Amino acid sequence: MGVDRKRCKHLVWVWGPLTVLALSSMLVIAQRLNLKRKPDVQNGKQVFNSGCNTCHGPTGKGAAETSTVFKRPSTFPDFTDCGGTTPEADSQWKGVIVHGGPYKGFSTIMPTFGQVLSQNDIDDVISYLRTFCTQRGWPRGELNLPRAIATEKAFPENELVLTTAANATGAPTWETHAIHEQAFGKRDQIEIDVPWNLEDINHSYSSHIGDMTIGLKHVMFSNLRTGSILSLQGGVLPPTGSTKLGGAGTTVFEPFAAFDQLWRTNTWVQFQMGADLPADTKKSPQGLFWYTALGQTIAPDQRLGRQWSPMVEFLANRNLVDGAKTDWDVLPEMQVTLSPRQHIRADVGVRTPFTDTAGRHPQVQFYILWDWADGKFWEGW
Ligand code: HEC
Q1: Pocket test for ligand 1, best of 47, 50, 56 (most atoms within 8 A of CB)
Q2: Closest ligand 1 atom number to CA of residue 54
């Protein structure tokens, strides 16, 4: 009987995620992200040569500074630089082309073309801009979905995140993480996460560092046409935190897979599945986690304006010890882009345990994120 139940649980853990993956890949095949009409690159080239190359130059690197009257802003684009252009979504560029530089917090030198060019011309010139990057294999910024509070995304990022979880009931505790993520090469990212806890222990506040994480992420697969991206990450948590205060007391290895799927309705789902594997299992148990974030991004002005992303996360954690239960939490939240350039974002949500709730408190969670590759914190407003 006991054995049967165990086997049954294993089946759920292994086949549950696989079924979801299989189902979503079926949905993937059924769609094409770039909708309506196929852009006409030749027309885009003509538009570019008549309206853009005086400033952006025939090669897309920028016209010779002797021939332009303006001083180049530090963010002036070099369209041949794949590392700089592929993380930008078409909608980001379209906002600038339709409404001019200031719409996304850029220079007024970049004119407004919304009155001069048709929607089709603008889509075509964007598709021509894309031809300046001639390397393949860079994941496209459209697949950089809004960051969820707990579920890690698949896209390699350049960002700094400050995130805090505060107990809503019980003894006050604040767990804050400073997370630095930096992309390198076409498909890799390094991550450093330093947690810092402040808690009320017997009516006196104690502040201490937790176990930090150093992680390396690699994109295994990404496809703009189907809207999917898959990454693997290997993480190491050296025991920097005190064992008396929740630290593992042993180095923990944390491998995970992240798979994100975007649909053309701007609905998306992000899956993350991984394990915590301590070097010394006597000090800390092995565990599995399985996170899902389901959300929708809404933006006014035909998706060019401020982005609001309501989402809900379903979070499962399970220790691999006899008699352990799976802890399920649900976390509804809202992310919003604060700066017009969308490089500063905030997210707030409430995480509520709904199984095995003894000793687990609801938490208010919040983060602020700065995508530093898109400009300084105070720029782009
Ligand atoms: C008068 C000069 C000028 C013309 C003409 C011009 N641009 Fe620009 N453009 C700029 C400048 C300057 C910037 C950089 C703004 C900044 O970084 O603050 C820029 C930035 C951009 C960006 C980058 C936005 C980003 O997210 O980094 C895009 C895309 C762009 N231009 C497209 C076009 C297209 C397409 C045309 C023609 C239809 C065009 N530009 C015509 C000067 C010009």
Answers
A1: 56
A2: 5
330 pairs with which residues across the strands? Answer: 314, 352
Q: Do 122 and 177 fall within a single domain?
A: no
Ligand 1 first shell, C-beta below 6 A: 47, 51-52, 54-56, 70, 73, 75-77, 88, 92-93, 96-97, 101, 104, 106-107, 109-111, 113, 125
What percent of the chain lies above the pLDDT cut of 70?
92
Q: Over 60: is that where the pLDDT of 134 sits?
A: yes
Query: Does the pLDDT at position 63 exceed 50?
Result: yes
Mean pLDDT over residues 292-320, rounded? 95
The 3-class secondary structure across 200-234, one letter per residue, is EECCEEEEEECCCEEEEEEEEEEECCCCEEEEEEE
Query: For residue 361, which of 173, 119, 105, 124 has the smallest C-alpha distance?
Result: 173
- What is the number of alpha carbons within 13 Å of residue 299 lying toward its C-beta? 21
By residue count, the chain amounts to: 381
pLDDT for residue 1 is more than 50:
no
Whether residues 196 and 261 fall in one domain:
yes
Q: Identify whether residues 152 and 289 lie together within a single domain.
A: yes
Least confident of 33-37, 301-305, 373-377: 33-37
Residue that terminates a domain, selected from 74, 96, 130? 130
Instruction: Domain of residue 210: give its range.
Output: 140-374
Do residues 273 and 352 share a domain? yes
Counting from 1 in the atom list of ligand 1, the atom nearest the Cα of 93 is 29
Atom 40 of ligand 1, residue of closest alpha carbon:
52
- Assigned domain for 2 exists: no
Of 84, 82, 79, give the one whose Cα is nearest residue 125.
79
Condensed to tens digits (0 to 9), the pLDDT of residues 11-36 reads 566 667 777 777 766 665 555 555 57
Work out the average pLDDT over 63-80. 89
> What was the pLDDT predicted at 3?
46
Q: In the structure encoding, which two tokens stand for residue 28, read together?
A: 């993937």
Q: Report the domain count for the chain.
A: 2
Q: What is the CATH number of the domain that holds 47?
A: 1.10.760.10
Looking at residue 183, which CATH number applies to its domain?
2.40.160.40
Please report the pLDDT score of residue 271 as a whole number.
96
Residue 217 CA to residue 157 CA, distance in Å, equals 10
Which of 130, 165, 191 terminates a domain? The answer is: 130
